[in-house]
């Protein structure tokens, strides 16, 4: 797998670098370094990405919105 392959997979499957890092149990900097080619992509990665595909979006970690990203409308909705 090349850095370009990894980046294309991540975008196609709707992951940000931090979300993919969380799903893989690695630091977000690792994903960044793999994508820019500074670090070698580990051999387990292709298998791990396939597992994430099979798991589907239900198993995908979700990014939390920062306070800045929460709209005024959302601020007035009852909390779940």
In words, what does this structure look like?
By secondary structure, this protein is mainly alpha-helical. The chain has one domain: 434 Repressor (Amino-terminal Domain) (Orthogonal Bundle), CATH 1.10.260.40. It has five helices and no strands. Helix 2 crosses helix 3.
Poorly predicted regions are: 65-75
Mean pLDDT: 81
Shape: globular
Order of helices and strands: HHHHH
SS content category: mainly alpha
Number of helices: 5
Q: According to CATH, what is the class?
A: Mainly Alpha
Cα end-to-end separation: 41 Å
Oligomeric state of this protein: single chain
How much of the residues is beta strand, in percent?
A: under 5%
Q: CATH topology, what is it called? A: 434 Repressor (Amino-terminal Domain)
Q: What is the number of beta strands?
A: 0
In CATH, the homologous superfamily goes by the name: lambda repressor-like DNA-binding domains
Q: Tell me the Rg in angstroms.
A: 15 Å
Key structural traits:
80 residues, 5 helices, mainly alpha, 434 Repressor (Amino-terminal Domain), 0% strand
Short recap of the structure:
The chain has 80 residues and is an all-alpha fold.
What topology does this entry show?
Elements: H1 3-12, H2 17-24, H3 28-36, H4 45-55, H5 72-75
Helix pairs in contact: 2-3
């Amino acid at each position: 797998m090349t850095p370009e392959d990894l980046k294309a997979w991540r975008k196609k499957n709707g992951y940000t670098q931090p979300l993919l890092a969380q799903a893989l149990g690695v630091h977000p900097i690792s994903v960044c370094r793999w994508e820019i080619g500074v670090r070698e992509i580990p051999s387990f990665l292709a298998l791990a990405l396939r597992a994430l595909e099979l798991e589907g979006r239900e198993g995908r970690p979700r990014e939390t919105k920062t306070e800045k990203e929460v709209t005024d409308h959302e601020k007035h909705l009852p909390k779940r």
